[in-house]
């Protein structure tokens, strides 16, 4: 007899974590906006405890910050913070492409190519922004995964939420999506051809262009402090 599968209920704090994270990434909660635990608990009809736990997780991810007066608010970018995060990405992800060339098999390289194909199709049919952003994220994540370096993966993972947040600021429609797609294609070509230095440079250049465009968008949208 087949054993029944018992679905465990999702803890409240985890549900609130996903809800609050989505509200930040989608711009419902704006950078610098104060987070009121009491009001959120009232809005969701629960005690403050699961709200507080969800906020703690989001603080660890960097999406929520607290000041010296214990005032909790949505993370607001600075140019310095953006530069430091992109410096980390450039160092780690340019190294990751070198590692992938050594470690990945043909099947894995083809998987990366399929992500690129899916992105191209999504861009050309003008898919929702979230779908394209997630495909762009998938391209980078596959490279990290196929590097087979768990420490590298862990360090990038610690920045995962802020990287995704910056991607949402960086995406401004089809023209921008086509630019990112072309730069990803250049990285993929060098990986496929086994050119370590050229692949690393293509990744570094891509992230440098990304940072430059991000700064423009942060300033244009008055999101910077």
What does this structure look like?
The protein is mainly α and 225 residues long. It has ten helices and two strands; from the N terminus they run αααββααααααα. It has helices spanning 12-25, 37-44, 48-61, 79-103, 106-124, 129-146, 150-158, 160-170, 174-192, 196-220, and strands spanning 64-66, 72-74. A two-stranded antiparallel ribbon has the order 1-2. A hairpin with a 5-residue loop joins strand 1 (64-66) and strand 2 (72-74). The longest helix has 25 residues, at 79-103. It is globular. The model has no long low-confidence stretch (mean pLDDT 92).
The amount of beta strand, in percent, is: under 5%
The average pLDDT is: 92
3D shape: globular
Q: How many DSSP E strands? A: 2
In percent, how helical is the residue content? over 70%
Ranges where pLDDT stays below 50 over 5 or more residues in a row are none
Strand order of the largest sheet: 1-2
Order of SSEs: HHHEEHHHHHHH
* Radius of gyration (Å): 19 Å
Structural class from helices and strands? mainly alpha
Distance separating the two termini: 62 Å
Largest sheet: 2 strands, antiparallel
The count of helical stretches stands at: 10
């Amino acid at each position: 007899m087949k054993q029944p599968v018992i679905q465990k209920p999702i803890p409240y704090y985890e549900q609130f974590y996903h809800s609050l994270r989505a509200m930040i990434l989608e711009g419902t909660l704006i950078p610098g906006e104060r987070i009121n635990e009491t009001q959120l608990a009232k809005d969701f009809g629960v005690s403050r405890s699961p709200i507080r736990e969800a906020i703690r997780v989001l603080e660890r991810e960097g999406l929520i910050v607290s000041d010296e007066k214990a005032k909790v608010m949505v993370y607001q970018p600075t140019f310095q913070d953006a530069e430091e995060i992109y410096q980390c990405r450039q160092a780690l992800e340019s190294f990751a492409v070198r590692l992938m060339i050594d470690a990945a098999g043909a099947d894995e390289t083809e998987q990366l190519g399929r992500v690129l194909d899916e992105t191209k199709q999504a861009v050309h049919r003008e898919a929702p922004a979230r779908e394209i952003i997630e495909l762009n994220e998938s391209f980078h994540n596959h490279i990290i995964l196929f590097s087979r370096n768990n420490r590298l993966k862990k360090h990038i993972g610690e920045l995962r939420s802020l990287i995704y947040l910056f991607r949402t600021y960086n995406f401004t429609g089809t023209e921008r999506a086509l630019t990112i797609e072309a730069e990803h294609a250049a990285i993929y070509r060098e990986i496929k051809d086994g050119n370590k230095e050229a692949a690393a440079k293509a990744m570094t250049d891509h992230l440098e262009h990304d940072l430059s465009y991000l700064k423009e968008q942060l300033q244009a949208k008055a999101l910077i402090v």
